[in-house]
Design a protein that fits this description.
The complex is a heterodimer of chains A (260) and B (66).
Chain A (H helix, E strand, L loop, with lengths): L5 E7 L3 E7 L3 H13 L3 E12 L5 H10 L14 E9 L2 E4 L4 E2 L12 E5 L4 E11 L10 E17 L14 E3 L16 E3 L7 H4 L3 E18 L5 H23 L2
Parallel strand pairs in A: 9-10
Antiparallel strand pairs in A: 1-2, 2-12, 3-8, 4-6, 4-8, 5-7, 9-12, 10-11
Chain B lengths: L17 H10 L6 H8 L4 H8 L5 H4 L4
The chains are: A alpha+beta (260), B mainly alpha (66).
Chain lengths: 260, 66
């Protein structure tokens, strides 16, 4: 069976995006979320050969920090298990940053340049060679491409009457994205029914958008708003496409195994 | 010792914001409110915020004992 999915971007940045998908079941949405976190492979430093380390931190501590530095991972170029070598050579008194890492392959580079690795004092030196490996979040959290991936229902607000004159003046807080269906009652002059409005547009307080009204909030079934952030290894679009691709690959492998 | 590279809970990279955070909230002539500095640095979730707010830099303290 084929489904026509409606996808609409509420917000799109390079490392962060909010988008609506419908119709989608909660199970499938969760599957995509889990695939984004655990199944999309990323490059991360795995083995380190120290030539000189006279800093205050042990080799293993530095190895951990180096492993957590996000490295750019071009999609489709490498196979899982392939390695790229990076090197670092810094002499004190100076701080060694992730930007000082030099990669043998220019496609795989630190995604952020100013992550401090270690503070070196006068006379201390750090010289090392590291191998970055392509692996998935399932193996080690350092390989997680998606950080803070979440989804919530698309919600809609219904006006059920006027607020009583003696009712409390409390703010009605709602976070997420709403689909406008009471454009006439909205405080915004440009509102139209069917608009997707992120709640921070009205400071997360519904009484700002629908003043003096009594409101009922409903979840729209099968419509989910994803909020995806990446650590810099790739952009959001790549992450989502690779995640869905990995689900497809798994399903195909199962299909082959089951076929008699 | 050094500031953790990533938030323990969600995994966003917070190490890069430490130096600016420290400079603006402690070393500046007019230390600013940490809440405001974190908001401006774009550190949103409270799991990431506590990584910076509650970090104690031990590298300088340990250095003489090396």
């Amino acid at each position: 069976m084929t489904e026509e999915y409606e996808v609409e971007f509420v917000d799109l940045g390079e490392r962060e995006a909010t988008f609506l998908v419908r119709p989608i079941t909660p199970a499938f949405a969760n599957g995509i979320r889990r695939a984004m976190i655990a199944d999309v492979p990323t490059f991360s430093i795995d083995t380190v050969r120290f030539i000189e380390n006279s800093s205050v931190m042990f080799d293993e501590q530095l190895g951990l920090r180096l492993g957590l530095v996000p490295l750019s991972t071009p999609p489709g170029e490498f196979e899982e298990g392939e390695e790229v070598t990076l090197s670092l050579d810094v002499e004190g008194p100076e701080t060694a940053y992730s930007g000082d890492l030099v990669a043998s392959d220019p496609m795989v580079e630190p995604a952020d340049d100013n992550i401090p690795i270690i503070d070196l004092k006068d006379g201390q030196r750090l010289e090392l060679e590291a191998d970055a490996v392509l692996d998935s979040g399932r193996e080690h959290a350092k390989h997680q491409g998606g950080v803070a991936v979440s989804y919530r229902h698309l919600q809609t607000v219904e006006v059920v009457g006027e607020r009583g004159e003696f009712a409390a003046d409390d703010p009605h807080v709602l976070r997420g994205v709403i689909e406008e269906q009471e454009a006439d009652a909205a405080a915004d002059a440009d509102a139209q029914n069917g608009d997707l409005v992120p709640t921070d547009a009205f400071d997360n307080d519904l009484t700002n958008r629908y003043p003096e009204k009594e409101l009922d909030v409903h979840d729209i079934e099968d419509a989910f708003v994803f909020n995806v952030e990446t650590d810099g290894s790739f952009d959001v679009e790549t992450l989502v496409l690779e995640a869905v691709g990995s689900l497809e690959t798994r399903a195909d492998e199962l299909k082959e195994a089951v076929q008699l | 010792m050094m500031v953790p590279v990533r938030c323990f809970t969600c995994g966003t990279v917070v190490g890069e914001h430490w130096e600016e955070f420290k400079a603006r909230t402690r070393e500046a002539e007019e230390p600013e409110d940490p809440e405001k500095v974190l908001d401006e640095l774009g550190v949103e979730r409270h799991c990431c915020r506590r990584m910076l707010v509650s970090h104690k830099d031990l590298v300088d303290i340990v250095a003489p004992y090396q």
